[in-house]
Amino acid sequence: MIMMSNGLRLRLEHVRIARSALGLRDDFEYLVVLRYPEFFRLVDAKETRNKYIELVEFDPKLATCAIEDARERVYRERGSEAEDIRFSFLIDFLPGFKISKYFRIAMWKWQSLPYWSPYEDVWGYDLRSPEAQKRMEKRAVATIHELLSLTVEKKITLERIAHFQMAMNLPKKLKEFLLQHQGIFYVSTRGNHGKLHTVFLREAYRKGELVEPNDLYLARRKLAEVVLLSPRKARVDRELVGYRRSKLDDEMGQVTRAYLEDACEDFKGGDRVEQGVDDEDGLSSDIGSDVDSANEDDDFDDNVSNEKEIS
After folding, report:
1. In sequence order, which residues have a C-beta less than 8 Å from that of residue 105 and are 6 or more positions away?
2. Which of 124, 118, 8 is closest to 64 using CA atoms?
3. How many Å separate Cα 302 from the centre of its chain?
4. What pTM does this model have?
5. What is 72-94 written as a DSSP string?
6. For residue 54, what are the β-bridge partners?
7. In which region does residue 49 sit, left (phi positive, over 0), alpha (psi from -120 to 50) or beta (all else)?
8. pLDDT per residue as tens digits for the range 33-55
9. Considering Cα of 150, then 152, then 154, then 159, what sign does the dihedral take?
10. What does the alpha-carbon distance between residue 205 and residue 217 come to, in Å, rounded to a whole number?
11. What number of helices (H) and strands (E) belong to the chain?
């Protein structure tokens, strides 16, 4: 992300807001940024008093987009026949989406249009011409595509993308811009009464699931399944836990009573008082029975009273 930004730096606060989508821990500032000074450094902007994460050195080996890797795989499979996808993106419209003849021609022209990589510095180019503006628009598509590819679940809220708007040269009207490229991105308005917009990378999903799930994504799904358990099943689980706890309490209570009885015998020094239930039989009996526990409590009270009368 920092390699795609202007000046090779991003605001620390903006990265912190998007840390969950990027798979970063809450203490990433200390665990990643400050721990590896050979790659990152924290700087304070005097004019804004904001902290920035700055890249120490640009590594060209890492400046490869996910879409470029996908094209490379197609090149290896199809060879020279894949020359027409040199600057194209994977497009997948919703079922029932009607594509007219003129739309298909415009889409073909846009797919074959060259563009600058999101990792390329464009400040040295003349961006005033209409051709340069078209290339910058396609570059913005590639930048958002790469940003989504860097996330854990290949999705992020539109509001979090807007934090990197200036740093990554993204259009001002992000929602309208993304809706113009519905074959690449999907914008969901579910949540917070339609005020929360989540942007998905279409090619990364099939039937609502990630095509290539990672370990962190699978762990989050399992946690979500536990949280979304039905109330009935959750009640049964609580009953099982309560039963185990009561069973353990009964067992510890019987062990404590046996210990007290032995202590009374040793302190008295007399003959052992006969009990209605053997210690060994009591310990080996069903410790989860409430009736047995109540009977043993009565026996224990009788024994203590008998001992007082004898003494």
Report:
1. none
2. 118
3. 60
4. 0.71
5. HHHHHHHGGGGGGGTT-----PP
6. 9, 41
7. left
8. 999 999 999 999 887 789 999 99
9. negative
10. 13
11. 12, 8
